[in-house]
Amino acid sequence: MISVADGGARRAALAFIFVTVLVDVLAFGVIIPVLPHLIEDFVGGDTSRAAYWVGVFGTLFAAIQFVCSPIQGALSDRYGRRPVILLSCLGLGLDFVLMALAPSLGWLLLGRVISAMTSASFTTANAYIADVTDPAQRAKSFGLVGAAFGLGFIVGPLLGGVLGEIHLRLPFWAAAALALLNFLYGWFVLPESLPRERRAPRFDWAHANPLGALRLLAHQRQVLGLAAVVFLANMAHYVYPSTFVLYADVRYGWGQKEVGYVLAAVGVLSVLVNAVLIGRLVRRIGERRALLLGLACGAAGFAVYGLAASGAWFLAGLPVSALWAIAAPATQALITRQVGAEVQGRIQGALMSLTALAGIAAPALFAGAFGWFIGPRAPLPLPGIAFLLAGALLLLAFAVAWRHARLPQPAAAPAADPA
User: Fold this and answer.
1) Which residues does 16 contact at the CB level (< 8 Å), separation at least 6?
2) Degrees (nearest 5) of the Cα angle 137, 397, 157?
3) Which of 131, 121, 335 is nearest to 227 (CA)?
4) 3-state helix, strand, coil in the chain (%, to 5)
5) Rounded Cα gap, residues 264 and 259, in angstroms
6) Overall pTM surpassing 0.85 (yes/no)
7) Which of 291, 389, 350, 339 is nearest to 69 (CA)?
8) pLDDT score of 169
């Protein structure tokens, strides 16, 4: 097992998790430029109707994750992180094969159901990091995982855009190959991070169901405010998969290749922020201020996206929005400081349930608003409405974080015995 006292083992474990997350994000990123267009093909090329179906896909995905994520978190607390990560990678690979072969919208939807049931690697990766990293170093380590996300979104959407120009189904085959290769990598290389003596004594169904997971958060009162920040921030983040591809097409005339280039630029900026800036920034200003700065920059970036009348103005908002990436590692670091190792997996599963709960409402909100404001019955032409709504959610998250984001207080020293 891995000991945080063993620096070499810790670095190796973080490298394993970095690669695991990177390959999973590559697999997801490859299909981003093409999935909305594939849905659009299935509904006869009607963009407004496709936007609503994109919302349905996102809501169903999130609803299933809401149910399954705490189960996966509880399983990782009881049986270890490694088997849950491996199951996730295998399930995603088989899911992408199904979507590559899908003959209809219904089959494509079934593929997303399987993906939602098995996509646990990100949740379990966070618990893995908490297992192997000292509390003071967790923000930096979560930043490395954020860098894997960014790097995956450099290569993934760019590759997906290029492959999608050849054939709409080709990116799904590429995603399947990446996910299955990741499964093999994890099978032969990834070590377990949670020793048997630190595992939960039993699989707890009370905390493995989504309502039980939320009750677990309710009993961890020290993390409730931060959990609300996670909920709001993730709800805002759903604006990207819900509307970006179709929004870029309608407003700026960007096709799959252009969308891939833009998402690659987003990935480059995310890598720079996560790999270079977060560790230095947190040391200088602390996790609380880093969280607040990230949320403020995200809100400003969304405002630029929503109001940008040209593609050049949209691109000008990318560096501002990229600084939002500071917020997530800072939040995760603050949360993991508040709870013990025996519940890290369940806490991460509960947080993923919150993310999924946000995703149940968010795709319908964003895709529905976008579809309404580009449709014939729109009260005014405002295709950027979804990004403006997302910015408002981040402003609300900023207000909650201002009140609740605090480091845990050290225990008071026992009074001296007067005798």
Assistant:
1) 186, 189, 190, 191
2) 70
3) 335
4) 80, 0, 20
5) 8
6) no
7) 350
8) 87
Q: What CA–CA distances, in Å, run from 327 to 35, 336, 340? A: 28, 14, 22
Q: How far is CA 264 from the centre of its chain?
A: 17
Q: Are 124 and 345 in contact (CB under 8 A)?
A: yes
Six-digit token pair at 341?
């190792």
Identify the burial level of 412 via C-beta atoms within 10 angstroms of its C-beta, where 0-12 means exposed, 13-18 middle and 19 or more buried: exposed
Short-list 166, 411, 160, 147, CA closest to 267: 147
At position 334, the amino acid (one-letter code) is L
How many helices, marked H, and strands, marked E, lie in the chain?
19, 0
The 10s digit of each residue's pLDDT in 294-331 is: 999 999 999 999 999 899 999 999 999 999 988 888 88
Place of tokens 């630190």: 198
Superfamily of domain 7-192+205-404: MFS general substrate transporter like domains (1.20.1250.20)
Chain length of the chain: 419
For residue 146, which of 334, 277, 298, 329 has the smallest C-alpha distance? 329
